[in-house]
Design brief:
The chain is α+β, with helices and mostly antiparallel strands. 41% of the residues lie in helices and 21% in strands. It has helices spanning 2-14, 20-31, 36-44, 49-85, 104-117, 132-135, 169-178, 219-234, 287-292, 309-317, 324-327, 330-333, and strands at residues 122-123, 129-131, 155-156, 159-164, 183-192, 204-214, 240-247, 250-259, 276-285, 301-308. Helix 1 (2-14) runs parallel beside helix 4 (49-85), helix 2 runs antiparallel to helix 4 and helix 5 (104-117) packs across helix 10. 27% of the residues are buried. It binds 3,4-dihydroxyphenylalanine.
Length: 340
């Protein structure tokens, strides 16, 4: 029944009659004695009592939307009719085209930026076409690290020093090179990896990098900031878990899991029965990185973290296939439109 209501709502919104007769026909088909909405209301009487509230509200919304739409269109035909005799009526309302909406990746990115803004972070940006120094060398990657391999990274043939950034960590290098502590930045951006080998992966995706440098910044600050983020993003009951890990640019390093918001931590097929979902990498900025970027590692410490926006969006909205974010199918995208 919900699917039917939604389908009718979409039809109401998409309805663009060319003639007034078409409008009347539409009205009868929907609201007439044998109309589809009338039939829905009959069916409503037979639904289980616990469903009544939600379905009733939805049907009411649909009915109001249908009546509004029909009235607006009626008025449009009326003003158009009177305008035909004389000059064009410039006060006539414009046609009601679908206005579009934000992409789910932008919605989640903006929410992340807002959450960290409340902790005093500002947004920093950097180029997508980078050089080896900012993506690898300054971040303490050894010469023979596999990420430097052509298999994983897109390089420019003519100049092996130029490449498409594989992570937004390059932005933290640019920030440290140009700003003095205290530094508190959040860096959203597009990244590129030569991973298109599998049909399930995509060579372009999005990340958000965070960096906080000051005197006496500790691992406890890192943990508390990330816990705050998890609660704001996934709900007040969220818990986090840090597992030891390795990244060349942080020491110590950790990977963070958040309690599965789909099953409440009991275990489901999304969290593979564990109750936990891995969402980001983090750690204390390695002193080698601070020094490479011109920051005195004997005076300052800091933490960094990085996460994929697609991953967070999939978990938040329950999207099962990452490719949906890149296909631009309006049937998918319009589900994130506040107008519906
Ligand atoms: N750059 C890492 C990646 O792309 C993510 C990351 C991990 C960023 C740990 C960090 C960090 O700043 O501390 O996989």
């Amino acid at each position: 029944m919900i699917a039917k209501i939604e389908e009718l709502l979409r039809r109401v919104e998409d309805f663009r009659p060319k003639a007034e007769a078409e409008l009347e026909e539409f009205r009868i088909k929907l609201l007439g004695k044998k109309g589809e909405l009338t039939a829905l209301m009959d069916e409503f009487r037979t639904v289980a009592p616990e469903m009544k509230r939600e379905l009733g509200q939805k049907i009411n919304t649909l009915k109001t939307a249908a009546l509004d739409r029909i009235n607006t269109l009626k008025q449009e035909f009326a003003t158009a009719g009177s305008a035909q005799g004389g000059t064009d009526d410039l006060t006539r309302p414009g046609t009601n085209d679908y206005p579009g909406s934000r992409h789910p990746i932008s919605i989640v990115r903006n929410e992340m930026v807002e959450i960290f803004a409340r902790l005093g972070y500002t947004v920093a940006d950097g180029p997508e076409i980078e050089d080896d120094w900012h993506v690898f060398s300054a971040l303490n990657f050894p010469e023979d690290h596999p990420a430097r391999d052509m298999q994983d990274t897109f390089f420019i043939e003519k100049n092996p020093d130029i490449l498409l950034r594989t992570h937004t960590s390059s932005i933290q290098v640019r920030v440290m090179e140009t700003q003095k502590p205290p530094i508190r930045v959040i860096c959203p951006g597009r990244v590129f990896r030569n991973e298109a080998i599998s049909s399930r992966s995509h060579c372009i995706f999005h990340q958000v990098e965070g960096l906080y440098i000051d005197r006496n910044v500790s691992f406890a600050d890192l943990k508390q900031s990330l816990l705050y983020f998890a609660k704001e993003m996934f709900g007040e009951d969220s818990k986090i878990r840090l597992r030891p890990s390795f990244f060349p640019f942080t020491e110590p390093s950790a990977e963070m899991d958040v309690s599965c918001n789909l099953c409440g931590g009991k275990g489901c097929n999304v969290c593979k029965g564990t109750g936990w979902l891995e969402i980001l990498g983090c750690g204390m900025v390695d002193p080698n990185v601070l020094e490479a970027c011109g920051i005195d590692s004997t005076r300052y410490t800091g933490f960094a973290f990085g996460m994929g926006i697609e991953r967070i969006a999939m978990l938040k909205f329950g999207v099962r296939d990452i490719r949906l974010f890149f296909e631009n199918d309006v049937r998918f995208l319009r589900q994130f439109s506040p107008a519906l």
